[in-house]
Automatic annotation (TrEMBL):
It comes from Steroidobacter gossypii. The chain crosses the membrane at residues 12-34, 65-89, 95-114. Keywords: Membrane, Transmembrane, Transmembrane helix. Signal peptide: none annotated. Pfam families: YqiJ_N, YqiJ_OB. Residues 7-115 form the Inner membrane protein YqiJ N-terminal domain. Residues 137-198 form the Inner membrane protein YqiJ OB-fold domain. InterPro entries: YqiJ_N, YqiJ_OB. This is DUF1449 family protein.
């Protein structure tokens, strides 16, 4: 079924799902974020939603849920619905469903499903992330390493509060050669390297926090 000519849209969706997962993992390794990069292409929730396309994005919770999460939900739902439909048609009629009919049915099922899951995730995901605050404004703030060990050229994930008290997640690495940051250590962000990747040094004033 995976390579049947009639099911190619769902096979493509499955491979795109794997590709998105791979690219996001690679982006995290180099200290970037595919989700945040794509998020900047779309309007913030409640910001000038007027056109039909903007209303559709708002209906799908774009801006309230990380965009890559919604893409994954869409691709997974579309592929699973298409394959399930073809299995049912094959079981009862002995042939695969016509491609255009299967795609239309899959879209009709997928969009409300993504809307439902997105609305649920928007209520569950802590609203402590913002895409409106520049990463550059975090320079000079103190971050706490949450996972991994950071070495020069090999950043670890850390969390840092912005000027509004909202928590953001960034990637940090030592400014000086031979230094490491362990999980739980506080790091003063000294400069932005690229995107959400920063160089830093151990917080020289821990008693002030």
């Amino acid at each position: 079924m995976l390579f049947a000519p009639e099911t190619w849209p769902f096979t493509v969706a499955s491979f795109l799902l794997l590709l998105f997962a791979l690219v996001e993992c690679l982006a995290m390794v180099i200290g970037a974020s595919l989700s945040q990069s794509l998020q900047q292409l779309f309007p913030d929730p409640g910001e000038g939603i007027a056109g039909p396309f903007d209303k559709l994005l708002d209906w799908l919770s774009v801006g309230r849920v990380p965009f890559v999460v919604l893409v994954v939900l869409f691709l997974a739902s579309f592929a699973l619905t298409g394959f399930a439909l073809n299995l049912i048609v094959r079981q009862f009629f002995g042939v695969w469903a016509p491609t255009w009919i299967a795609v239309m049915v899959a879209l009709i099922v997928t969009l409300p499903l993504v809307r439902l899951c997105g609305a649920g995730l928007a209520r569950v995901i802590p609203q402590d992330q913002t895409y409106a605050v520049s990463f550059e404004s975090l320079v000079g703030r103190v971050a706490t390493v949450v996972t991994g060990t950071a070495r020069p050229g090999y950043p670890a994930q850390a969390k840092v509060a912005n000027e509004h008290g909202q928590m953001l997640y960034v990637m940090v690495e030592p400014e000086a050669q031979g230094m490491t940051f362990q999980s739980g250590e506080q790091v003063l962000l000294t400069r932005q390297l690229a995107g959400n990747r920063f160089a830093g040094e151990l917080n020289p004033w821990p008693d002030l926090l």
